[in-house]
């Protein structure tokens, strides 16, 4: 009854199922792992001590920026240089800009420093002259997918869309650190910008998207298995019916009908042509004319 499993069609179906189910399970497990990583990062961030209670460290000791150093207080010494505005930044629901000033350190590499947030229409104060030492929360470079990055396209001179070495290296002559700091104490006229949590460390929408994708992949695996069993059952029932002679006859198929129980005497009847059968039995054609060999009744 299951000989149909050896046909080329079923070989193809079985190979597809054998490959599809492990693939769906693998993808579901991978998405679940991504979600668990985000949960672990979130728990680790909650256990991490408040950066304000940890002694500020020299900038070079905290680079490169990762989840363990993001938000840590860093110190750097140098002289302020070029200053830019980063438009489209909100603080407490109000629109404004970050005031970004480059601090040229003794190594010749400039550190982007966000001195504070400026409300829309305000004027950014000039940076102090001479050598200064700054202390701020260390942050990783932004990218187009970072929270708060809205500026797109060409910007006026003196403005940048995001805080990153990639966006600043083309507008300044010095090398730029692949990191930035936001000052703990902003100068007059500016509001301190709070440090942002490192990306991937919170239970945000992306984390729950990973969890949703996990369920989808496992559902796909179950659906493939369900359809395989359903198709197998249907084919097996059809093969059983054919073996018992219970297979349905298609319309127009020729069927031998025994007359009087004798196999020798029979008539070939076209299934679905009931009118022709009735007409033949009455000795007339389907059109009502006398059949060949039949005599029509005549009036005396």
UniProtKB/TrEMBL annotation:
Membrane topology: Multi-pass membrane protein
Keywords associated with the record: Cell membrane, Membrane, Transmembrane, Transmembrane helix
Pfam families: SURF1
Regions crossing the membrane: 12-33, 211-232
Subcellular location: Cell membrane; Membrane
Cellular-component GO terms for this entry: plasma membrane
Domain of life where this protein originates: Bacteria
InterPro entries according to UniProt: Surf1/Shy1 (IPR002994), Surf1/Surf4 (IPR045214)
Tagged with keyword Transmembrane helix: yes
Location (main, coarse): membrane
Entry's family note: Belongs to the SURF1 family.
Protein name (database record): SURF1-like protein
Species per Swiss-Prot/TrEMBL record: Streptomyces ficellus
């Amino acid at each position: 009854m299951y000989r149909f499993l050896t046909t080329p069609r079923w070989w193809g179906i079985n190979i597809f199922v054998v490959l599809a189910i492990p693939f769906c399970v693998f993808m579901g497990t991978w998405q679940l792992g991504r979600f668990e990583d985000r949960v672990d990062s979130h728990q680790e961030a909650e256990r991490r001590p408040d950066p304000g209670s940890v002694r500020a460290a020299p900038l070079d000791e905290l680079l490169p920026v990762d989840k363990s150093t993001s938000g840590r207080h860093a110190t750097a010494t140098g002289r302020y240089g070029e200053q830019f505005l980063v438009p489209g930044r909100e603080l407490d629901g109000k629109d404004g800009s970050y005031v970004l000033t480059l601090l040229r350190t003794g190594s010749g590499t400039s550190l982007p420093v966000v001195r504070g947030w400026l409300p829309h229409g305000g004027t950014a104060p000039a940076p102090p002259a001479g050598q200064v030492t700054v202390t701020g929360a260390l942050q990783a470079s932004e990218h187009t997918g970072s929270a708060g990055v809205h500026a797109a396209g060409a910007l006026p001179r003196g403005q940048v869309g995001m805080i990153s070495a990639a966006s600043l290296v083309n507008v300044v002559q010095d090398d730029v650190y692949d990191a930035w700091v936001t000052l703990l104490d902003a100068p007059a006229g500016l509001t301190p910008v709070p440090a942002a949590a490192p990306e991937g460390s919170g239970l945000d929408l992306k984390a729950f998207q990973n969890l949703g994708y996990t369920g989808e992949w496992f559902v796909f695996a179950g659906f493939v298995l369900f359809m395989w069993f359903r198709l197998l059952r249907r084919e097996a029932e059809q093969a059983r019916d054919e073996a018992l002679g219970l297979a349905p006859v298609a319309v127009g198929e020729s069927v031998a009908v025994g007359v009087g129980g004798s196999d020798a005497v029979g008539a070939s009847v076209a299934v679905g042509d009931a009118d022709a059968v009735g007409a033949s039995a009455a000795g007339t054609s389907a059109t009502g004319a006398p059949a060949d060999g039949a005599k029509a009744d005549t009036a005396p």
